[in-house]
Amino acid sequence: MSQNEDKIFMRHFTGLMVFLVIFTVVIAFFGAYLGGKFNSNDNASQQANTERNLQSPAAVYTGSEAPQLAAPAAAVAAAPAETAATAATTDEAQADIDGAAIYQTACFACHGTGAAGAPMLQADAWTERLAQGEDTLVDHAINGFNAMPPKGGQMQLSDAQVRAVVQYMLSQVQ
Ligand code: HEC
Fold this sequence. Notes:
Cytochrome Bc1 Complex, Chain D, domain 2, mainly alpha, binds heme C, 68% helix
């Protein structure tokens, strides 16, 4: 390549670079302008969505006892362990828990589909597991077991709720 061709190339190349730099700056300003124009914090429904997404997990529906838990959501968030402990100690609370509903929201994703190798609610998948006894199964559901995450990843569930769900699951396979 001759010196002259190099010069022409450099001139074009520099021109292109300058153009791209200017283009980038223009796009950046344009984006900032649009961002300011559409980012309306006064949009009521957007605000409501944001607040709903920031709710404490304790406010999420987890069965028939949810109204008690959800109503004072702030208080529950402040003392979730206490609520769980109270729920765990009373037999009425245990009977009151809707294991089937919690199963649908917290466990179905894996146990309804077999995702991650989770045993589905079919008798043959549970024969060996049942041999461990209900308490061991509940313990594995609460504290996790191999690919089974503790409480199915829903740490806002009380131990009593998890026990109720396991009892529901076992009632489906026995
Ligand atoms: C992310 C997927 C996932 C979710 C969500 C999940 N599980 Fe599991 N679960 C598994 C897998 C995988 C296994 C099998 C673990 C193994 O045997 O190695 C399992 C096993 C179990 C077992 C049998 C444990 C044993 O000792 O054989 C029980 C009981 C159980 N899960 C209960 C639950 C309950 C109750 C929930 C909802 C609160 C739940 N799981 C949510 C993946 C999941």
